[in-house]
């Protein structure tokens, strides 16, 4: 898991999917125009790890993938997006 999370673009992809599903192209734009090859590779790895899923609305985090939000709440930090 740490190896996957340490790979380039992995955490950025998870961050961008926090608010809700995104299509491949929207995710690519939000990730500063990451190459399609890199994005495809990371999405495949994240799907295999069951952290994201692909559906009609695009890619979305699974409940397992939303662990970071639960972790932040556990530490008393509330929504990670509220921190500047």
> Rg, please?
13 Å
Taken together, the total number of domains comes to 1
State which percent range the strand residues make up: 5-15%
CATH T-level topology: Arc Repressor Mutant, subunit A
Backbone shape: globular
Question: Which CATH class?
Answer: Mainly Alpha
Order of helices and strands: HHHHEEH
Low-confidence stretches: 79-84
Percent helix, as a range, is 40-55%
The average pLDDT is: 85
Task: Describe the sheet with the most strands.
Answer: 2 strands, antiparallel
Q: Output the CATH homologous superfamily.
A: Winged helix-like DNA-binding domain superfamily/Winged helix DNA-binding domain
Give the CA-CA distance, first to last residue. Answer: 27 Å
| CATH architecture term | Orthogonal Bundle
Lateral strand order in the biggest sheet: 1-2
